[in-house]
Structures are given as structure tokens and as C-alpha cells.
Amino acid sequence: MSAVLQNLVNQPYKHGFVTDIESDVAPKGLSEDTIRMISAKKNEPEWLLEFRLKAYQQWLKMTEPTWPNVKYPKIDFQAISYYAAPKQKPKLKSMDEVDPELLRTFEKLGVPMHERAVLAGVAVDVIFDSVSVATTYKHKLAEVGIIFGSFSEAVHEHPELVKKYLGTVVPVGDNYYAALNSAVFTDGSFCFIPKGVKCPMDLSTYFRINTQESGQFERTLIIAEEGASVSYLEGCTAPRFDTNQLHAAVVELIALDNADIKYSTVQNWYAGDENGIGGIFNFVTKRGLAKGVNSRISWTQVETGSAITWKYPSVVLQGENSVGEFYSVAVTNHHQQADTGTKMIHLGKNTRSTIVSKGISAGHSNNSYRGLVKIAPTAAGARNYSQCDSMLIGDQSGAHTFPYIQVRNNSAKVEHEASTSKIGEDQLFYFAQRGIDAEAAVSMIINGFCKDVFQQLPLEFAVEASNLLSFKLEGSIG
Amino acid sequence: MSAVTPVTATYLESLLAGQAQLAASPLAWLNTLRAAAVERVGVLTVPTLRDEDWRFTDISLLTKMSFHPLRTAINLQAADIERFHIAEAATRLVFVDGVFAPQLSNIDINSGVLVSNLAAGGAACAAHLGRHAEFHNNVFAALNTAFLHDGALIVVPRNISVATPIHLLFIATQKDVASYPRCLLLAESGSAVTLIEDYVALQEEAYFTNAVTEIVLADSARVNHVRVQREGAQGFHIANCAVSLARTSNYQSVSVALGARISRYNLNVQMAEGAECAVDGLALISERQLADTHTCIDHAQPHGVSRQLHKCIVGGSAHAVFNGKIMVRQGAQHTDSQQSSRTLLLTGRAQIDTKPQLEIFADDVKCTHGATVGQLDSEEVFYLQSRGLSDTAARNMLTYAFGAEIIDRIPITSLKQQLEQTVLEQTASQL
Predict the structure, then answer these.
(1) How remote is the C-alpha of B135 from its chain's centroid?
(2) pLDDT tens for each residue of A135-167
């Protein structure tokens, strides 16, 4: 079998994409040949192959990081298949065929009817034509000059843009998983907002979710030119099941003068069962470069899924008066582990950053906030405010805070505060007095706790996210 | 720890060089303890910036110098050290370059407390010495333990309150000497005592102080621990202090770091049920000094209370480091912990790395921490100017007030005044 495959992959690329599912999966293991194969399959230009190979060389020299506060069995990088052509999933004919467990989840989350169908993988054109909706949106975006599509498309249609910005924020050798991603990424999203354009709608990967799986090594690149602004949504509240255990994505954001990028994530990947068996390892590198004057980059994340979450959406504040923001809610239950936070690197004058992080840990889970605020000698008048609050539910869980503060300029002002609390008996009693049962009370308390972050999410996302939280913590109290 | 590199290995060998000449003690357990420590020094390496605990503290300068153990003791006269006396302290133990100097010391026999040289220690000593200050993974504590000979042993008997503070004075007089001060304080149940650990120098050349202090509090004991580090400007000071608290005991500590080219203070506090501690610190440094404070307060049992306020005033191109870890272990319910790190940067080249760290494994707890970094508030300066103070005087006063909050917590009047004067002088020279 493997010899046949070997022959197959060594052949020059002749056919179109999806032919035979079996034959389009690369053999396990990572080598230069695998990378050349991926690049050839995707019909990539020479410079991109070089980019990948450079990353691979760097990756070989690196060792897996051990500093995060997470525990997991060692990953065998040679046991992973690094390329699978986008698979055609068997389409379900109607909602009746969908897993009832999934339907129950949709019900709880209040996902609109037509979206449920899309998410469950029902052949959408039967019920609701989301493809045409997506196309309509695309036309509307094209009118104002916005480029939004898959990364592979962009490589072919706008190579000059991709080449100019790829790897400028997260260099190939940035860290172990970023290097791995740079070597083997298969697809992702690309978004370009030209000068002075305010994106007329929230961009979302939502519409691309089932037409194309982006795979385990996703690459996202968003560029906002001078005066442009965009709000980008990643993921969705519905649970996402995936057979790939290791996910190592890279997201790069670039904001030029007066540009504004808002990036919101709701992550609810499979977290493993109650005993911590299975679940996705989510090792992500996300970084924004606030390059221009008065530019602004804002990260909002709601992290509820994955067995292990290991990500630090960061902002490099290079332009004068640039602004970085980080709003995060991380919820862990059962045996989940999250080590997440942010890095705010102040380089330019009068740069400002705000960090609001809320961690909730229940069951046997561990939730860590790890943040860095760095004020370079050049960042005169920089300002940072950080707040990280943890809530513990049950006495088997853990909450940790590791805020690194490094200041090299005395005109900077940095403040950090953190607190830990629990849902008190007295609070629950007060709700009970008013005729509200424990479950609804917990949901309300948690919503109050996370309010500062939910306010940053686009409206319909915020509603779903708050439902998601109570759903995740169901049964962990009382 | 990072891989053994020849440089640090030979460096440690050179530091250990005099250890073999150390006379074997008549106490078998002490010889065993030393041998165990020597073995660890052989295994461990000097930490570098690649070690998480030493990420911001570059001690390569220390490893470039060669230090030897004391060869010939200097004969100091009482008059030489008079200026270091603390009026309130009836009992004073003086160590010159790490060696006990009985002629300079004074032991108040009426205080009811047992004060002696560690070398004469009995069974109590054997049960505690080296048991609290872990040297298995700490190369400096291991070095100190390997050289264990002299040291202060203080035993406060049951239910005795010692009225006057006990002053431990460690004086550095010779250049290129590595000294290993050691202190063991045993506070038996219901006792109370105030201990002053004081590090001074009579010379300005490079030397190395590597100190270890162990403090053991039995049930309901109270210990006030004041630590003043005013080493010489070229000195290196590395100290480990381990405090173990039993039920409902109370530990109050104020540590002030003023001197040394590079200083590092590790304080580990182990909390038992219902124990309380207040751990405060002030680092006032300038020029090219580096002062690093690492503290760990470990709440292992329920109902513990801890308070911590650490302040740094950083001038010149000095570099301050603070790492404060609060650990709340599973089952340590109803822990109440507050921590605050505040830093004042006086100049554009001053640096601070601060990391208040919480690790919590229990749900019914109250834990908060905070950190601020900044310069003097221009509105406060303006307010004082509007009252007729010059800009310099206003800044001076505000800087002084910032530091005085910590110094005010020292329970010994004469020492407090002395330190306040020092802070005032130093802030005045900065601005």
C-alpha cells in the first residue's frame, strides 16, 4: 500500500483536486519530500516552496516547548499525515439524519435553523442555499475592492500581496509550532482591505465551513491598508468534530496607518470526554502588527473547546499611538487544559494596550493566564492596563496567573490586577430566594463575570457565546 | 537546569576548592550533610538566563570572578563596627567574613533565649538544619551547606517572648572572599521574637556573600524578621531563606535591599493551617545595580492568610526583578492572600521585570494580586510645588514617601530612622 502511495505522490501532479479520497492522503511522516509534494499538489510558485523549506530547516533545529503549564503525551510528528486533499463528506439528505446529540446542542445554543443545517453537514442546497448567499456577499465585497477567500486562491490570484506580507509578523522560525505550520500549512483564509475602505459587513469563515475543510495546519493572513477597517469572525459556537488531534494554526494581522482590525474567535472544538480521553490539541500562534500610526488591533476570544489550548494572540505596537486590545474568556471543564493569554509589545510612542482576561475552571481542569507586557526603551508614554480574573468551580480545578511585566521606559505606566473567586453559596441562595434555580443562577453569574468580554463580540455571536458557556458548565455545580 | 558547560563546572570547582580543608566536625550528621551538599554541587550547574528562575538576572559577571574561602581572619576592634550597632538589640552576634567573632558579639543571658554558634548545635539543630532550605536543586544553597561551619543558632523556648530584638551582623572585610553566612531560628510554640539580619561591608571591592537562613515556627509562634542588605557597591549577594510555619503561627518580614552590584533573595514561606504571614520588601537601587527578589508563599493547608507588598525604586541604569509566587494547594480552602508589586522608575534607563504569579488549586479562596509600574505622578509633583516646594524637593519627598511605606513596617525605631535617612540621602542624590 505505502509503496503504491509513494509512487503516486512522486508522480508529477497531473490531475485535478479531489479524485479518490484514499489516494489523496499523503503517507505519514514529515520530510523535505512531503513538503515538496504538498507544494506541488497545490501548484504553488517557487517562492512559497522556498518559504516552506526554510521553515522546515528551522523547525528541525528547534525543540518542542515545555514551559506551558499543560501536560500531554509526546506528539510523534512522524505519525501524522501532512496532506489530505479536501474531502467530500457524504452529504446527509435531511435534518432527520443528523445526530440527535448535535441537534440538542444547536437547540441549547439557539443556532438559527438554516445555520444548523449548514453546520450539521446537510446538503445545504436542499434546504437553504448558503452557497449563493456566500456568493452574493463576495460580489458585494469585490465592489469595494476587498479580497476575501481561501489562502490557496490568494496565492494564485494575488501572489504579490501574499509574498509581501506572509511571514512578516510571525517569522518562519518564530516558535516550534509556527515553524511546523509554515512548512506544511495546507490552506486558510486571506483577507485584504484596500486603502480607506470600511468593510461593509463582518467577515466570517462561517460560510466556508463545509465547502472546504481547512485542515489541521491553517494559515490566516489579514491586511488592512491605510484607513481601512474590518471585523473578522473565526470559528463558530457549534461543536466542531475533527479527527486530527494536533492543530497548529498561524494567524497574521497587519494594520497600516489608521487601520483597524478586530478579530473575534469562538472556539469549541472537541474537548475529549469526561475522563479526558481524546480531544484536540490546539497550539496556535496569533499575532498582529500595528504597523502604522493610530492603528488598532483588537483580539476577542471565547475559548471553550479543545483538550489543550495553547495560544497567545499578541499585538506588536509599532506605530505611534497604536492601540492593542485583548479580551478573552477561557472556560475549561473535566480534564481540559488551557494556557492562554497575550503579549503586548510596545515599541512606538504613546502606544496603549488593554488586557481583560476571564478564566473559568471546573471539574479537573487547569486554566492558566500567561501574559507579557513589554515596554521597549522607545515606547515613551506607553500605557497598559491588564485585568485577569479567575473563577473556580469545584475544588479539583486549578487557576493560574503568570503575568510578565518588563518595563524599559520610565514614562510608561503599567497596571496589572488579578483576582480569584468562586460562585458563593450566598449568591446562589439569593437567586433561589427570587425563585431562580441553581442552573439559571450560575448561568447569570457567569454572564456577569464575562460581561466585559462578551460586550466586545458582534451581537449574535455574543448571545450564542453566553449560551455556550452555560452549556459547557452544565452539571458542574450542585 | 541547562547542560553542564565546562565554564560553570570549573567555576563551581574553584568555589569548592577550599571545602576539603574544612575541618571535619565532631558531629557525624553535620559531616554527612556537608558531603551530601558537595555531591549536589558536583551535579548542579550555575544558572543562566535560560533558566526560568534566572531569566532576568544575569549572573555571568559573578562567574567571571574568582572567589576563595576566607584564609586569614582580620582582627576587628569593637570600635570599627560601632556604627552598625542597633541600640534596641541587647543580643548581637557578629560574623566577620562568615566567621563568628565572639569578641565583638554580645549575648544577653537574661533574655531566656538560647543563642549560640551553630557549630555547637545539638539534636534540635540536627533535626532542622538543611531540612528547610532545600539544596537539592539550588546550587547556591548547596554551596552554603557544603561550607557549613559557623552560623547563628537561636532557640526561643516555649511561651517565651523575647523583649529585645536579636541582631545578626554579617560584615564583609576582604576582597575576593566568598563567605557563607548561615542562620537557624527555632521558635517553639507560643514564643515570640524579633530577628534582624544585617549585611554590611567595610570595603568597596568585589566579594561574594552566599547566605542561607532557616526559620522554623512551631504552633502559635510569632517571628518578626527584618532583613537589611547593605552590601558594598561591588559585592555579590545571593541569599536563600526558608520559613516554615506551623498552625496559627505568625511570620512578619520586611526585607530591604540597598547594596550590592548584583543581589538575589529567595524567600520561601511554607504555610500551615491558620498561619499568617506578611512579607514586605523594598529595593532601592541605582547606577548599575541589579536587585532580584523571588518569593514563594505556599498555602498548603486551609485558613492561611498572607499579605505581600513589594516595592522597587529604580534609578540610574539599575535593573530590578521581582517574582512573587502565591501557591494555593488543593484543600487549602479559605485561604486569603493579597499581593502587590509597585515600582517607581526614576530614570529612562532604569529597568523592571516583575511577575506576580498565582497558582490556585482550591475554589473557596480569596486571592488577589496587582502590579503597577510608573514614574512619579506629575499632578502630585505639581501639588507640592503649588505649596512652595521646588521641583527637586517635591520629587524627593514623593520618592521618599513611596519607600517609607515599607520602612515604616519595621518594628525597631532606631533601625527605621537609620534606613529612612539612607533612603532620603539616596533619593536626593538621584534627582
Answers:
(1) 16
(2) 556 777 888 898 888 888 889 889 999 999 999
Show the cell assigned to B182. 548561615
Which among B238, B290, B302, B246 is positioned nearest to B267, based on CA atoms?
B238
Residue A40: strand pairing partners: none
Q: Are B348 and B319 in contact (CB under 8 A)?
A: no
For chains A and B, count residue pairs whose Cβ atoms are closer than 8 Å: 111
With beta carbons under 8 A apart, name residues in chain A contacting B357: 400-403
CB B228 within 8 A of CB B169: no
Measured CA distances, B294 to B36, B55, B356 (Å): 25, 12, 10
| Residue A66 contacts B where some CB pair is shorter than 8 Å | no
As a residue count, chain A comes to: 478
Per the structure, the count of domains in chain A is 1
Q: How confident is the model at residue B17 (pLDDT cuts 50, 70, 90)?
A: confident
User: Which residue in this structure is represented by grid cell 508529477?
Assistant: A12
| Phi/psi of residue B249, nearest 5 degrees | -85, 170
Assigned C-alpha cell, A422: 468562586
Phi, psi of A84 (to 5 degrees): -140, 125
Sign of CA dihedral B404, B405, B408, B409: negative
> Cα separations (Å) of B410 from B198, B215, B226, B256, B271?
13, 18, 7, 10, 22
Contact check, Cβ <8 Å, B350/A404: no
Residue A65 forms part of a structural domain = no
- CB of A295 within 8 A of CB of A316? no
Q: Cα separation of B374 and B356, whole Å?
A: 16
Give me the pLDDT at residue B221, please: 95
DSSP code of residue A28: B
Q: A109 by DSSP, 3-state: which?
A: helix
Distance CA B141, CA B187 (A): 22
Residue A19, domain member (yes or no) = no
In percent, how much of chain B has pLDDT > 70?
Answer: 96
Q: Which residues of A touch B330 (CB under 8 A)?
A: 395-396
* Cα B65 to Cα B67: distance, rounded to the nearest angstrom: 7
Amino acid at B383: Y
Flag if B367 and A409 touch (Cβ within 8 Å): no
Q: How far apart are CA A1 and CA A299, in angstroms?
A: 46
Distances (CA, A) of B418 to A337, B107, B124, B414: 51, 23, 35, 6
Q: Give the other-Cβ count within 10 Å of A103's Cβ.
A: 15
Q: Domain residues for A386?
A: 95-472
User: Which residues in chain B are contacts of A397 at CB distance < 8 A?
Assistant: 361, 363
Answer whether residue A147 is part of any domain: yes
Q: What's the mean per-residue pLDDT of chain B? A: 88
pTM of the full predicted structure? 0.83
% of chain A surpassing 70 pLDDT: 77
Nearest CA-CA distance, residue B283 and chain A, Å: 16
Query: For residue A152, which of A195, A110, A208, A232 has the smallest C-alpha distance?
Result: A208
Confirm whether A300 is domain-assigned: yes
